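Hi all, posting the design record for the shared folder.

TITLE: backbone redesign
STEP: 1 of 1
STRUCTURE INPUT:
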């Protein structure tokens, strides 16, 4: 697969390309998947996100990636590392990890498998001293995965985002240090 960045037992993680908007929109931009992420995005928002991610990868050597199932080649997730860029966050500029998995592939361990590779990437070649992940209390699956990955809840990093629905506020954060990850 061209633009391969990471690989796990069942998954390949690759750079996002200019022709990936339709696939992203069809597979990952659904009401259920986007429920705690501000809702379904408009096509121009996906295009902007992809452009920003491709520019970041070119500049910094990391960004979010598309995750494909090896067995089928199907797109199953979108995950990776980016900078915390919400101006309301108290830790703008930290390395942020995140993920979105298509609904028909939930509960198969794909997010856990992909994020273990992403965290190794963050602490290895990227050189992050620590990573954070953002979610909300109502996104139970998300923060449970953060805990499964060994991340620690950081109430001191919570913030309210008026652009998000009340049910998804405040934004909460978990963190994980390099040493903590290596000594797990």
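Okay, here is what came back for every position:
SEQUENCE:
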């Amino acid at each position: 697969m061209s633009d391969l960045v990471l690989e796990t037992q069942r998954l390949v993680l690759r750079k996002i390309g200019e022709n990936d908007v339709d696939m992203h929109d069809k597979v990952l931009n659904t009401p259920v998947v986007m429920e705690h992420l501000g809702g379904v995005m408009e096509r121009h928002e996906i295009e902007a996100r992809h452009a920003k991610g491709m520019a970041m990868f070119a500049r910094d050597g990391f960004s979010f990636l598309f995750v494909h199932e090896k067995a089928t080649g199907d797109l199953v997730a979108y995950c990776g590392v980016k900078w915390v860029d919400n101006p309301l966050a108290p830790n703008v500029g930290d390395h942020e990890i995140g993920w979105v998995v298509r609904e028909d592939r939930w509960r198969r361990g794909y997010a856990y498998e992909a994020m273990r590779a992403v965290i190794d990437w963050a602490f290895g070649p990227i050189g992050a001293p620590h990573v954070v992940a953002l979610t909300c209390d109502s996104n139970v699956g998300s923060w449970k995965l953060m805990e499964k990955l060994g991340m620690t809840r950081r109430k001191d990093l919570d913030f309210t985002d008026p652009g998000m629905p009340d049910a998804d506020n405040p934004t909460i954060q978990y963190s994980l240090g390099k040493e903590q990850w290596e000594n797990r």
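COMMENT: The two ends are 32 Å apart (CA to CA).
Let me know if anyone wants the other runs.
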